Records
---
Amino acid sequence: MLTVDFTRFPLAAGDRVLDLGCGAGRHAFECYRRGAQVVALDQNGEEIREVAKWFAAMKEAGEAPEGATATAMEGDALNLPFPDETFDVVIISEVMEHIPDDKGVLAEMVRVLKPGGRIAVTVPRYGPEKVCWTLSDAYHEVEGGHIRIYKADELLGRMRGAGLKPYGTHHAHALHSPYWWLKCAFGVGRDGKDAALPVRAYHKLLVWDIMKKPMATRVAEQLLNPVVGKSFVAYATKPHLPAMTTDAPAKADDSAKAEA
């Protein structure tokens, strides 16, 4: 289940991609299939080991084209272990709402992104997320849980403040909003067989939808995404720095002489 729409966020074969806070690796796997040179990074070592296993299985099965590479590694989003301007593309999906220093994370992403590179940021949408917070304190008052709810203008403003230039937005996963409302209403800690019947029934519907991708639910979700889409997705570029004029050094020297 992808949150980033790769028809709006195209990848070229050979692009260097950082999936920051990759979790179970869903976007990293898709980038690998598209021929990218992928680094999937997360602070959760257990998840990273699973992602590495899946990368190896994909390579063995021939799911990635020739030239594509994939690396899974542990790391800190606030102190990325890469030189400046390393990546053509950065993806951070459903992560920033967990991190107290979200401005610091944005600054690190911009640092490792090449000028002209692209970034995709996804966070829970304000309206559906606010319903979850209202229905259940346990939904967000847990270690590592959601610590803020972004309004669209707020997130875009922070991206601009970090030096990015947003170029598109949309919403995703409308069918998932009712599922989380049900979980919050009946108990977010009740999973599997312990979950309430409405939660189990809706979960079966979502699994069926993900596996079968029937036209009816695809159309329904497209129509509902603008209204109750669970995620807000923003795309941006890192502008190229303005070129220095040929007489700039001379002017600087003149200024220095004047000050002397």
Note: Residues 244-260 have pLDDT under 50 and may be disordered.
---
Amino acid sequence: MGFYDLTVEKTNGEQQAMSDYQGKVVMIVNTATGCGFTPQYKDIESIYEQYHAQGFEIVDVPCNQFAGQTPGNDEEIHEFCQLHYNTQFPQMKKADVNGETAIELFKYLKSQKGFEGFGKGAKALAMSAMLKKIDKDYKNNPEIKWNFTKFIVDRQGNVVARFEPTADMKEVEKCVASLI
């Protein structure tokens, strides 16, 4: 099974086929409306506006698995994002990205790109300290660690990068630009 064989549920209950994105660069991101990383929506929207016409798409999957930071329903989440960040990219139905109830899309992404660390800096240290309390072995499993983990898929459907929420958004943009 490959990336183009997968689907994800839209907010209206229909399935969004990843095969619709063949030939495009895609960012898949699990998001939250009440997280310290929520302001990344601004940067994600900026990248979308800059590269969408050149074949860039975003699959935004709101997720409430991390400290309950996405409590609203799909409509409330969409309204929040449009009101606060003027998002234009589509959002999918709120879903789980870890555990037995994780959607297939995230199971696949994690199988292709595991966790490689949070990098350096204050946010990276804070995330590591927090996760050590939750899962002492967090470094050795591919699970999504927190909201705003981003996967980049190239025009051929290969998962080429995983960016943890602590990653500099300029690095994320640089990766996208290199694939456009």
Note: Residues 3-174 form a domain with the Glutaredoxin fold (CATH 3.40.30.10).
---
Amino acid sequence: MYEYIKGTVEYTGPEFVVIENNDIGYQILTPNPYVFSSKKGIQTIIYTYQHVREDIIALYGFPTVEEKLLFRKLIGVSGIGPKGALAILAFGEPSQVIRAIENEDEKFLVKFPGVGKKTARQMILDLKGKLHDVLGDEEQHLPKENIKSISSDKVIGESLEEALLALSALGYSDRELKKIAPKLQDKEMTTDQYIKQALQMLMM
């Protein structure tokens, strides 16, 4: 079992990122490949989970330990496979998903791709009260490069700029990005959070 892989980002696709480590390129399925698109050629850490079935061996990866832990919890729910768990993490912050489960907010959960009322109820039944370890003091487990301060306007501006560059690299036009940028400028978020928020706006 691979806990994490540390290497350089060589390629990002619509569903995966390729990390090179010791001349080996690892294709890693991830909920948000665009998070890594601005780090091409830069060494980074991706937290991994190896999924083995009779017909497939797949490597899933996440920018934070928090996302990896929640992914493992989600695939333990009846009706949610790895692809479904990736879709949930692609469209929602772990804290939002956990809050919805703890508050039994089915209306919020069914907004995720592939999650109907039956699956939402099953998520609540299986996971409510069992996610405290996911939102523990996760910062102590993260490398410093994954912890970004958002205490100053300069850093907020840099985070938003990195997010827009990543979305541009994925093919979104300047026109589309200029339309949503003003709606994001007053928010205090990390690059990853900006990207997720922007994607939700772009898909409306």
Note: Strands lie at 4-12, 16-21, 24-29, 43-53, 56-62.
---
Amino acid sequence: MKKTQQLRQIINSNNLEFLIEAHNGLSAKIVQEAGFKGIWASGLSISSAMGVRDNNEASWTQVLEVLEFMCDTTSIPILLDGDTGYGNFNNVRRLVKKLEQRGIAGVCIEDKVFTKTNSFINGATQPLANIEEFCGKIKAAKDAQYTDSSHRKG
């Protein structure tokens, strides 16, 4: 079964399911060997492993390189913490294409303004993208998606 299908099963399961954080090939392999069904590719952890802050200091191409190693060492799906999509709708479209080329099962994007502020900063206001901009990012991601297109609605 494709990794995208595995992720869809996890998301649609009636059972409590867990995706466990990983930030490199070794930690991804440990997650799989421990018996978990999926991996959460944490933006915070990937950035921290690179020695940078979680505010888009690591470029999307650097994150992509880490993901490629994670995917190469595992057979379970990876869901990427895609921050804000690394820019506007064009960046999101390109990100989705590159993630699919590397076998990444899914991406979660935040409705914050690029560049993002870490969610764990106490008392900091989290500026949100306007609705039209964020919807444009989601549409661009879905338009760029070619895996599992038979599951699309409309």
Note: The beta strands are 19-22, 38-41, 78-81, 106-108.
